[in-house]
Specification:
Layout lengths: L1 H37 L6 H7 L1
Keywords: Membrane, Transmembrane, Transmembrane helix
């Protein structure tokens, strides 16, 4: 009985810890891929306004 409770809490802790890391990792990679794809002009608003 103790072992199953322990495993249950470990599984719950693993999910609660890994979920934000997984989501953050996706957002982090998405952000950097976007930044690298669009180039440095998106980073600076002033240069973007000057070209228009």
């Amino acid at each position: 009985m103790l072992a199953s409770d322990f495993l249950r809490t470990v599984r719950r802790n693993l999910i609660t810890v890994s979920a934000p890391i997984f989501v953050g990792y996706i957002i982090y990679c998405d952000y950097h891929a976007c930044k690298n794809y669009k180039g440095p002009k998106v980073e600076n608003g002033s240069t973007n306004n000057e070209t228009q």
